[in-house]
Specification:
alpha+beta; four-stranded antiparallel sheet; globular; 18 strands; four-stranded mixed sheet; 23% strand
């Protein structure tokens, strides 16, 4: 932490000692005041990649499906029911009596228009992986729709449960992405009442929100979002009552706020995991990592539990497989590598490196975690020269076959399916350091089947082989640090997207 930030926090804590309590105003006028640091350029979910855009969309729009944040069960939302016709076709019966915030009636036309718009390459939706698995939608009746997939895509429900918000066809056709991005309209539990671009968004409870929604009925009357770039300013406002909720705090900031009366800190587990990749095939030259014994030595050399507990903290946990534990298809039933420096040294000696070796160790975020790993590696004889870069620079070097040893992270875009992480890193593409055709084939087989039992079977084979061959060093899950007034009931989710429609005042 810099001296400037530390001084600011000390001053804030001194001031806070004289305060009666934090954030009383929000509860009194039924207004939840919250902040984030980034300016959201558009509120059209299909034309931004920011987490903040997801937050807006989840509150003002609905999808066909809702993934229950507790049970992970897929429940009909705008859809009344759904069924698979075959491996590439789905049918949806839609709910009736729902209206958009502008009074436009919801029906099959809105679903067909939205899906056919976002799947049209000419419309250049930014996050293509959210929509490019769909071919088209067809209207079967006023409240019945058929969805055609380009190929079998078993993660369809996961994407339809949060990444394909449905827009009003008449309004969107009139205003287009630009107009919608400035004044969005949905069917969701909150509607946008006021916007000051780059400064503030005011949401008010949708009093006409349909009663059968699995999202439930919103309890808080108004949400006021403010864009405040400086986290120290957000902290000061939280402590003096100007804000009720903030997130993305550093571990140090979270620790300090735990000492403040009236503030609750939550270190909720995030779907993002950290892992080390090693050049198995020699793309970067004749590296030691081509030897399985070296890769296993690296796995044994690092005390992942200590880093997870002492540096990441909160609800972080060690992961053993190349996936986030809750994701469909993920399993912990793989070969595990306990922290065992002596075993690591023995493996290195057997591989012909009794005195270790020297290697450049790359990364792009959370340098302190990388520094800790350097220390553990040094203890077994591996001299890792830390090279910390911006993500774009690291990506370019990786694509250019210039990185042999790297700490990476992946958040799966909040998608609770193994296809969005393991399949992204083990299908012989640029970010696949292992290049194992057998693993690729198993993953492709799982990614193209709608038989859940078969998917789990082949994913299990792939994950076991990845672990046995030590293609990765799976490290730990991340946490998202939240701080909020003690008067608020708030629960975090692994995708780190707050759902204020599930919150309430005590």
């Amino acid at each position: 932490m810099s001296r400037r930030i530390l001084s600011t926090l000390v001053l804030i804590f001194i001031v806070s000692a004289f305060l009666v309590s934090a954030a009383e105003a929000g509860k009194k006028d039924d207004t939840l005041n919250f902040a984030w640091t980034k300016e959201l350029e558009t509120m059209d979910r299909y034309y931004n990649t920011a987490r903040e855009g997801m937050i807006v969309s989840r509150h003002i729009c609905d999808d066909l499906i809702f993934r229950d944040p507790v049970t992970y069960e897929y429940k009909p939302l705008l859809a009344k029911s759904y069924k698979w016709i075959d491996a590439t076709t789905m049918e949806f019966e839609l709910r009736q009596g729902i209206t958009f915030h502008n009074g436009e009636k919801f029906d099959a036309d809105d679903v067909v228009y939205t899906i056919n718009f976002v799947t049209n390459p000419e419309n250049k939706v930014l996050v293509q992986q959210n929509v490019d698995w769909m071919a088209k939608a067809e209207k079967l009746g006023p409240y019945k729709v058929k969805l055609y997939l380009k190929k079998p895509f078993p993660a369809a429900l996961e994407y339809l449960g949060g990444n394909v918000p449905i827009y009003p066809n008449e309004y969107y056709a009139k205003v287009g992405p630009k107009g919608f991005g400035q004044k969005p309209v949905g069917t969701g539990p909150y509607k946008v009442a006021e916007i000051e671009p780059g400064k503030k968004i005011v949401f008010v409870k949708n009093e006409n929100y349909f009663k059968d929604s699995p999202k439930g009925q919103p309890a808080i009357g108004k949400l006021v979002q403010r864009t405040i770039p400086e986290m120290t300013t957000q902290i000061a406002e939280l402590m003096t009552g100007g804000l009720d909720w903030i997130y993305m705090l550093t571990p140090e900031q979270a620790l300090n706020l735990e000492k403040v009366r009236g503030i609750k800190v939550l270190r909720g587990e995030d779907m993002r995991i950290a892992f080390i990749q090693m050049d198995v095939t020699g793309r970067t030259g004749d590296t030691p990592f081509k030897d399985l014994r070296v890769r296993r030595a690296v796995n044994h050399a690092i005390d992942r539990q200590a880093i997870s507990k002492n540096l990441v903290g909160g609800e972080s946990r060690v992961v053993h497989a190349a996936c986030f534990p809750s994701q469909f298809g993920c399993t912990d039933d793989v070969m595990k590598y306990e922290y065992h420096p002596e075993k690591a040294k023995k493996l290195l000696a057997e591989a012909g490196y009794p005195n270790g070796f020297e290697v450049d160790f790359y990364g792009y975020r959370d340098r302190q975690y990388g520094e800790a790993m350097v220390g553990y590696l040094q203890a077994v004889g591996i001299k890792a020269n830390l090279k910390w870069l911006q993500y774009s620079a690291l990506r370019d070097m990786t694509q250019g076959d210039k990185v042999a040893f790297v700490m990476n992270t992946w958040g799966s875009y909040g998608v609770n399916d193994i296809s969005n992480i393991t399949g992204q890193h083990f299908k012989l593409e640029y970010n696949d350091f292992a290049r194992d055709p057998q693993v690729r084939d198993w993953l492709q087989e799982g990614d193209n089947s709608v038989d859940s039992s078969h998917r789990k079977e082949v994913y299990n084979k792939a994950l076991k082989r990845i672990a046995e061959q030590a293609y990765w060093v799976p490290l730990f899950s991340y946490v998202a640090n939240y701080a909020y007034t003690q008067d608020l009931v708030f629960t975090s989710q692994p995708d780190a997207v707050p759902r204020f429609f599930l919150s309430k005042w005590k």
